[in-house]
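User: I would dearly like some help making sense of a protein record. This is the protein in question:
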Amino acid sequence: MTTVTQVPVSELTRHPAWLRIKTAATELQPLQAANGSIEDAADHERARALVGELIEGVAALAPQFPHDASYLSAVQDDFRRWVDGGFGVPDFYDSLIEFQPQQHRIDGLAHLVVFPMYTQNGSRSRLVEAVLVQVIWPDFVADLEAGDYSNKLFVPIRFLDFTAGYDTNSAVLFPETVAMRQIPTFTWGAIFADREAARFRRVLRAAVDVTKLDLPAEAAELLDDQHLTEETFVMWDLIHDRTHMRGDLPFDPFMIKQRMPFFLYSLEELRCDLTAFRESVAIDRRIAALAEPTAEDLELARHARLVQYCVIFDRIFRFAITGNRVRNYDGLGGQLLFAWLHQHRVLHWTDTQLAFEWDRVPDCVNELGAAIEDLYWRSIDRPKISHWLAAYELVSGTVEPHPASAWKAGDLPLTGLPRELTDKVMDDEFPLSMFYEAFEKKMRDVIASTSGITGTSA
């Protein structure tokens, strides 16, 4: 494993320069408007002093991050330009294009990230945020990425410390969230695998208790091993993330900013997860067929099996009941997977106890993935509205729509504009089943407790 020599993480998070940065950013945030500017001239003197603290803190901490030298220099210049411009809408384009973490995917490497930005699942205001992160890049993931699962943009990371915008459910660090004058070609996207793993473990532990699930021994290891779970999520995320760009796609169904019925986003996210599931099944089966697998082969196969457990349990236990019921596309994806497994009789809810026929699960899940892939393949030859109707048919064939649904009744303006069809979709087009209504009540406090969780706080 390639590693890098840096001061210990504990020293970084206690470093006076980092604490200076964190304090200054925190005090700046209440002075900022939603667009990142500081509108009240009476606040400018205080803001100027705080930005000075930020700049001095970044300069003092920069020697710990020689791999980010050009970025940390540029971000100081962008802060100075913001001050000199009278604290208008911030523009950190110049420093953003200098930050290239995908060029340094080295296990344990730390980065200091300071930008005016919004955080997904948190504030939509572009406030100054500061984050200390560390790369997670185990050898087996490096080998996967160098082989059949290339994804040069993918950067898995863990939290070391952060300001308030990340004390939320946000588990991504994306360049498009930064305040900037123009949109560059994005070259990286970072995912906090430690937060994903930590909230998964907390939710799974509670769900096992609530449902009386007899957890397979290999899956049970995830409950007690944060490091193992992080590495498993990195493998899942690597394959998921690259899938958005690959396949028989109806013209990039998720990335292009367009208004569509939310269940189409459900299918796209689920497609990517089920691709990671399918590839993990294939990897495990390929290694199982080897006459003399190496120790590395066996370790990869282990992670491949764990990815399958993580996809299923995260989707049905956490995704399905997280967030509100207003066009919750991740929630619907979890509902769809649960109902599919139940209706194919490989998941059983009997005598108030959950059970799986694990030997049948891989092929059953792959059948759902194949149904979504076929929908996409056929969509290439279909008009948009026909594709939407076919997607609705796929989902509603497994998850029961709301009885008042115009889509369920077929009362749709098919000769109108596509947005008229979108307007007919109910906020909660596919309500929670009776199972999930009861399950959500028992899990509500646990789900809420995962906001802001990290690998060290799990």
